[in-house]
Amino acid sequence: MLNPQLRAVLEGMPKAELHIHIEGSLEPELIFALAKRNNVSLPYASVEALRAAYAFTDLQSFLDIYYAGASVLLQEQDFYDMTAAYLQRAAADNVRHAEIFFDPQTHTARGVPIKTVIDGIYRACQDSPVSATLILSFLRHLSEEDAFATLEEALPYRDKYLGIGLDSSELGNPPEKFARVFARCKELGFRLVAHAGEEGPPAYIETALDVLKVERIDHGVRCLDDAALTQRLARERIALTVCPLSNVKLCVFQHMGQHNLLELLDAGIVATVNSDDPAYFGGYMNDNFIATFEALPLGLSHAQRLARNGFTAAFLPPAEKQKFLDEVDAYFAAAAV
Ligand code: ADE
Ligand code: ZN
Known about the structure:
By secondary structure, this protein is an alpha/beta fold. Helices cover about 50% and strands about 15% of the residues. An eight-stranded parallel beta sheet has the order 1-2-3-4-5-6-7-8. Helix 8 runs parallel beside helix 9 (about 180-185). Bound molecules: adenine (ADE) and zinc ion (ZN). Zinc ion binds near residues 19, 21, 167 and 276.
């Protein structure tokens, strides 16, 4: 059992969430409500039956259900309601800043206009007290040509998202498949990130850095298989957006006691804690912190370091970043007495 004082510190500390797929925040209850509102039929009889299907063996077994869940999103208000629900839940966990992925291709492939997707998500961000920005993510199981077409469609709304990411089925879809479209996104001035080293090998982390020129790596936990890469990530201060509950649910680690978060920190890496797809993996930010601190020998100094890493790695203007870092330090100074 986690020491109640440490638990309270984890719950109350100011947080940045840098790795959350907004479609992964759709709770089963909201999936059913939206299905009813939009007359979409689901292959599950009830909320309980849907939840019972959340027994994943690997990334692909999750993605199949995640894309099915997103099929209920049709109108701008649906995207708004999903995002507003996430931000409200995040605020309850003392998340002060969130950088939110959205997967436009999941929706445009079903005939939903990209404007509907972006406007709904963006409007909810504007209405929230949480500082929230958006990262448009390409699906790597689709072609680079499809990513280019999506970028073209999204460019009229470019003031509403600041970054570009890469997600979906990692194995067999290496970063270099998207070299040209990422080069174009860099030219356009977007901040760049990519999922790499979740299930894929350390080589995918290297090509995400060297070919795609990303600034952060999403997951990246498999970097420890390569000592030179581990040292490079630490030296170049390339942040990893680690998602502990996700890693256990998708069997990247067999149980939380095997998670390598502490090794990453001990190697000098700017590791952060995030929820990935909280509705599917059994928890939001505080659940992720509590589960990791319960299973691993982590203490107050690690908590402060992880909270600081989140804001340090955020795509925020320097003054805003400093304001949040000062807030973290003041919180821990008060917690220590
Ligand atoms: N899309 C949503 N969650 C993901 C994950 N954990 N890895 C890759 N793609 C995703
Ligand atoms: Zn992810």
